Amino acid sequence: MKKKLTFDQEFEILKLVLDKFLWMGFGIMAYGFYVLITNQIEELVKGIAFMFAGAVILMLLSFLLLKEYEIVK
User: What pTM value is reported for the model?
Assistant: First the structure.
């Protein structure tokens, strides 16, 4: 038999997971920016690709957050 989580427990676990996605996306984008700044013109595509990958991860995070929880102003 599976244990059921309360809403607060589920939300705490979600915050931990979302925090990891945020750090991963930021880290990948920061590495891409580092590659852009330090390398020659041949490596610009690599840096741009890393920045794009980080942006995709952050957009995925936003999509999952908006899909899972209703945001009310």
Answer: 0.65
